[in-house]
Amino acid sequence: MTPPDAAHPRRLLLVVDAPSLLHRNHHARAHTRIVDRSGRPVWALHGMLRQILECIDRFAPDAVLFGLDDRTASQRRDRYPLYKAGRAEKHPELVEQLERAGALLEALGLATLTPPGLEADDVSASGAAWAGRHGWDCVIVTSDRDAFAHISPYTRVLRLIDGGISGSPLLDPTRLRLMYDVAAENYLAYAALRGDASDNLPGVPGIGEKAAVALLEVAGGMQAVWADVDHDAGRSLVAALDAHAVETGGRRTGATVVRRLTAPGARDRYEFNVDLMSGHDDLDLGLTPDVPGTLGLLPLDIDRVTRVAGFFGVDATTALAVRLLTGEPASVQ
Predict the structure, then answer these.
(1) How many other β-carbons are positioned within 10 Å of the β-carbon of residue 282?
(2) Residue 108 and residue 122 in one domain
(3) Strand, helix or coil for residue 195
(4) What residues form DSSP beta bridges with 41?
(5) Which residues are CB-neighbours of 1 under 8 A, at least 6 positions away?
(6) How many other CB atoms are found less than 10 A from the CB of residue 307?
(7) Beta-carbon neighbour count of residue 247 at 10 Å?
(8) CATH no. for residue 125?
(9) Is 167 exposed, middle or buried (0-12, 13-18, 19+ CB in 10 A)?
């Protein structure tokens, strides 16, 4: 994270992958059977709100933006019909809460974006890019590893795991390298080589995680890999991979790796994966931080927060929402 200047401290944008939180909370909290005052299921929505509040308490953001998936169309699926194929069908009670999430968040006064034909990860990518352009820092909250490609000196990712917000790792470039042995700027290339089973995207045949890490380590990036393949038949790459294997006590596999990279369709698969995995970072987020009252800017209006949070029927949640979203003490009846 870039250290703030005392005279001009960097502001913080919190970007939340709302579907990710809703999916996790639906499965973790379904046993509670919490319903709102109209009798509709809200356990996933309630769990999401509680985790959002925990994040706001932890990071003290200046603005909060929620990414949502377009549930009616998918540009990626149009290009690749098998995209995310094989995933279990969503439970109707989860679908209902996914469809209500945007209206709930906006009713609170928080900003949401459902990009046509795109996904919450595209909002995360655009949020990180927006922060970089405007001199802000950014924290992305998600369980999706695709967001690791957006990690930079000013963007961190809170990767949600079963331990909840407090038990989830907060990844910056240093911690990402420690966990995956990959530089942040190379994570997209690493993922494209390896593939992503959760999205039903196969990787380059024969190039697993270890080979991908070694490739990026010795070459510094895939641009250098392809350049050596194109101009020297990969000879320098073979030598560098074998030297790396000797240094690390591994087997010499340079020739095998280069042969797999140059196999028919290998480069096309890599480039296709990069293109499909890349988040759109040019979305109009509608953030106008210098305009008071703009959706997503904290603090929020106490009356609307009290009213909307109250629909969950959980006094403790209403009080917490009022305190953290408005900065005012709650008076819950």
Answers:
(1) 10
(2) yes
(3) strand
(4) 35
(5) 137, 153, 154, 156, 172
(6) 13
(7) 8
(8) 3.40.50.1010
(9) exposed
pTM recorded for the entire structure: 0.94
Q: Using the structure block, give the residue that is written with the tokens 């929402």.
A: 321
Q: Which two tokens stand for residue 81?
A: 């019909």
- Domain extent at residue 17: 12-181+280-298
Query: pLDDT by residue (tens digit) across 37-70?
Result: 889 999 999 999 999 999 999 999 999 999 999 9
Q: How far is 20 from 23, CA to CA, in rounded Å?
A: 5
**Residue at 26 is within a domain:** yes
Task: Please give the backbone phi and psi of residue 213, each rounded to the nearest 5 degrees, phi first.
Answer: -60, -45
Question: To which residue do tokens 């919490």 refer?
Answer: 34
Question: Two tokens at 190?
Answer: 């690493």
Q: Which residues contact 224 (CB under 8 A, 6 or more apart)?
A: none
Q: Residue 255 has which token pair?
A: 């020739």
> Strand 63-67 to strand 155-159: parallel, antiparallel, or no bridges (unpaired)?
unpaired
Q: Give the pLDDT band of residue 2 (cuts 50, 70, 90).
A: very low
Only one residue has tokens 């480069």, namely: 267
Confidence category of residue 137, pLDDT binned at 50, 70, 90: very high
Which region among 81-85, 97-101, 162-166 has the lowest average model confidence (pLDDT)? 162-166
Q: Say whether pLDDT at 333 is over 90.
A: no
